[in-house]
Write a structure and sequence with these properties.
Number of strands: 8
Bound molecules: iron/sulfur cluster
Order of helices and strands: EHEHHHEHEHHHHEHEHHHEHEH
Oligomer: single chain
Strand order of the largest sheet: 2-1-3-4
Largest sheet: 4 strands, parallel
Structural class: alpha/beta
CATH architecture of the largest domain: 3-Layer(aba) Sandwich
Shape: globular
Helix content: 40-55%
CATH class of the largest domain: Alpha Beta
CATH topology of the largest domain: Rossmann fold
Length: about 325
Amino acid sequence: MKKIGITTTVPIEVLLAEDYKVIDLNNEFITSDDYHHYIDIAEKDGFPKSLCAWIKGIYGVCIEKGIKEIVGVIGGDCSNTKSLVEVLKNKGIKIYPFSYPTNRRLSLVKNEIDNFTKLFGENSKKIEEIRKELGEIRDLAIDIDKLTYIDNKATGFENHLYQISLSDFNGDILEFKKDIIKKREEIENRKPLKQNLRLAYIGVPPMTADIYDFLETLDARVVYNEVQREFAFPRHHKAKNIYEQYYDYTYPYDVMFRLEEIKKQITHRKIDAVIHYTQSFCHKAIEHIVINKELDVPVLNIEGDKLNELDARTKLRLEAFTDMLLDRKGVY
Ligand code: SF4
């Protein structure tokens, strides 16, 4: 089976219709025990210290794993990916460009997906069949999400993992489907968790995935993971076709559009406060100014860099934040 790397969520249905095994390079990087090694490869090859760790990690994975083809999202996602893609192209890796349009219009999304489809052949019937097949797995991720915020049985980390994994279905749709069905059953048979604070996690997925377990030791649980949920396409059943599905996806578009869905979920999930994670050297950190102003629940901005676990200072800030929230809620 041909392998293709992706740098973020793309219309995976197009790639699966061409029988590719799709690998989300971010997941490959962050789940590796030796994740730091990938950053070292990039820095040795000249990537600056002052650059987001995700970009360096993706580069390192491509080089180390001998990835020959990737989809580079050069519009609507990350401004650094454009330069990354140029370096990878120069190294002989075949790049298939994809862009989310700057102006969110259905006709523009359609153009981009049609252009992307043409790069691989035009198999729109098969693409829709695959979209339907993936819809069944997306529904299972929705179940895990409901088990988090309605039944209070899934942890924040499980919610994160079983939604973020839908960017590439862990490279094997059938295996992933079996895994998520088993996980759903395991969670359903648990007793509800008892944390008093309900939190939202917004922003790019964390380098420091231990944040979820750490918060749970502080009587707080993440019951909404914004971007991870978008990666799983929770409103896929409302879309009549692939164009509408990717048009409805909030992550690549402007912060005010993202905030509409975030505000809806804050109310719907009875969220007490928001953790806004930003990555060092990421342009998206600037969005915190708007986010902080627009949300009417407390918002804490934390920043991650190269480490895959929380540092002492961030832990202290999370402790102080949750203490304040528990006081405010009159828990103690
Ligand atoms: S964290 Fe920011 S800079 Fe890094 S890859 Fe994501 S969008 Fe790009």
